[in-house]
Amino acid sequence: GAGVSQSPSNKVTEKGKDVELRCDPISGHTALYWYRQSLGQGLEFLIYFQGNSAPDKSGLPSDRFSAERTGGSVSTLTIQRTQQEDSAVYLCASSSSFHSPLHFGNGTRLTVT
Amino acid sequence: QKEVEQDPGPLSVPEGAIVSLNCTYSNSAFQYFMWYRQYSRKGPELLMYTYSSGNKEDGRFTAQVDKSSKYISLFIRDSQPSDSATYLCAIRAGANNLFFGTGTRLTVIP
User: Fold this and answer.
1) CB atoms near residue B70 (< 10 Å)
2) Please, what is the average pLDDT of chain B?
3) CB–CB contact B43 A56 (8 Å)
4) Is B88 in contact with A43 (Cβ distance < 8 A)?
């Protein structure tokens, strides 16, 4: 694909349910990032994948959040037992190298009711 | 102290005006500088990328980096209503050593 693809674009879920968010990075990009953006707030780093290395999970806000990246390509961010404070836009980005810019998808807008 | 500081605005200008957006940063190790534009309900879109001091121009946009002052700017000439968006600066020193400003919301009034 031409850019980073995220699905679904919108997700409404009930408090306590689990959700999975998907990211398909730009082909050939080895680095993949997940960020969270709350209304009127800046970008909050969640997790970073680089090739086959162990991911940097230092930004995950709680153990309800997890992510995996299969085959060095597609990534899934999972939020278990969702809470209302998890409502935000979840953005995925990819990059071809450590000195290249990040390219973002359009995000998944998560609403927890 | 935050790694990067950006005036949140909002900034409102008449069509045709020159817009100046600015960020300051604290760590001289930062080497790569980016500006993103984000429309409502969209992801950030890369506008400019530079890694040296001085100016880089692309159409109506000019990115300026002053490493000695740890200061970066984005200038928009002949601003258009379609430029109305939130602008984010981003600064990078390595693989996962990057930081984003909180964004400046710009409105260009026809």
Assistant:
1) 17
2) 93
3) no
4) yes
